[in-house]
Amino acid sequence: MLEAKNIETPDEKYTFEHGEVQIVNLTGMTVGRATFRPGWQWSTDVKPVVGTSSCQIAHSSYVVSGRFHVRMDDGTEVELGPGDAHVVSPGHDAWVVGDEPCVAIDFSSTGGLLGGRVLRCPCGVEFRVAEDHQLDHLVAAVQEHASASHGHQLTRDHVLAEVGAGFEGARDAGPERQDENAIRRVIEAYGDRLRAGDVAGIVSLYTHDATVMAPDLATASGTARISDVYTAALDACGMDYKFEFDAVHVSGDSAVARTRTTGATTVRASGAAVPGRNRELFVLRRAGEEWLISEYMFQPQPTGA
Question: Any residues with CB less than 8 A from the CB of 220 and at least 6 apart, and which?
Answer without folding.
Answer: 211, 212, 213, 214, 226, 228, 229
